[in-house]
Design a protein that fits this description.
alpha+beta; eleven-stranded mixed sheet
Length: about 525
Amino acid sequence: MTLYTERPARKSGLRRRNGALALAVLGTGLVLSGCSVANSGEASGGGSAAAASDMLRVVLQQEPPTLEPCEANLTSTGVVDRSTITEPLIERNPTTGGLEPKLATKWESKDNRVWTLTLREGVKFHDGSSFTAEDAAATIDRAVNSKLGCNVEGYVFGDQDLAVKAVNDTTLQVTAPEADPILPLRLSFLEVVPAETSDTEKVREPIGTGPYKLEKWDAGQKITVARFDGYWGEKPAYAKAEYQWRSEGSVRAAMITSGEADIATGLSPEDNIGDLGVSYPNNETVALRMHADKAPFNDIRIRQAVNYAIDKEGIVSSLYGGRDKAAAQLVPSGVVGHNDALQPWPFDLEKAKQLVAEAKADGVDTGAEIDLVVRSAQFPKIEELGQVLQEQLTQAGLNVKLQMLETSQHLTYQVRPFAKTSGALMLMTQHGNQAGDAAFTVDQYMASKGAQSAFGTPELDALIKKADAATGEERQKAFEEVFAYQNDKVVQFAHIAHQTGMIGKAKTVDYTPNSSTGDELRLAEVKPAQ
């Protein structure tokens, strides 16, 4: 039997109520200039270190496209939503990797297929209604079983639906189509919403059970959240929090050093943050995803040439000060299934040129346009990185057009059904495996029908299915085989780097970032410095 039970909680912790391009120089000798980016002006209206301590001020890289809870696995949404406005049934500890109770206090299964969850009592939604098993069941139905098209469905659950049953107000039964030993981990990606939430239309402003409730969203300006007095858990330190966004890292850093903000995300030392910058282990990996439905990517030799043409070590050294690590796969060390034996493709421009020439000689249209789609302000120096990649692939003999897009536009190319491009699509993706298990990467990014997979093969699909069903050492070995097969036989990806993260933190704030900070900044963990 698989069993988890919460340790006894302090009674005082529970409540019950009635009622419803700066500059980059690589081995090519290329000098790059910056791209103009929208929403990058200096903040106005001041603020200072003497600002009211009851207000926490956060500056992000970009405005969230939505706060829809079933899209919270997207970084730009989850950084505001997860465990702040909304909460999951089960929460993964980003430091230990273990699962911890949130809205569920216990979960157990005799066969890893039928799971029974005991739910926390005394929990209220922000509208005053009580949280029950009906809400938990409706949340799963809405995000996983409906036709709403939630990103979390493809990312975490794939095509398989779950059978859910509210046994009583505090007991939920969840049944998978087949034995699934990591179902509790999958459930940790679902943010709970009231049963009345529409399952035919997505919501922009959610009602949750978290320590903060959404107070106001001034589109294009800021988002304000307020402490929820009816919260079941520990009262957060700040009465309110305000999110703003600035696309330029140097501007976000200046807001910290000038006292205009308390926390800034997505920084690097080059942003002049000084000793107010705090580095943390990041599980994000940057890669290029190539779509094989058009020339020249319909020939594997071109996809191989892309891998050889990218000077990953040069990029890590020149753009990121050697802090990142050249990547050979989509998950970093520490994730179950990471293949230690894989090495990054070597930088070999002549080999890249040779492969392009061979493909051209065999009739492949190697001059066909390639649309390199990159999201503005997604992470530090991304504009410069896009320009470097365009230049390096051009030197290999490919015709690359760079497109810098805002978040909402980029998402249309990131997730199925993919938007059409005039040329062959090559998308820069930043993937963070927050679950610590390779299933959450390969099911979405490598399976033939994966939500963020451009294509696959029957052989790779079979390897993925085998790995998904395995446990223990067999699971590790099976996923290692998946990553090796991708690099050898499929080559959908050109991996670039495993990243490190940095936030800016005012001296008035006490907060320790972790591997999940970039995806879910839990405001309840932030406290005034003593």
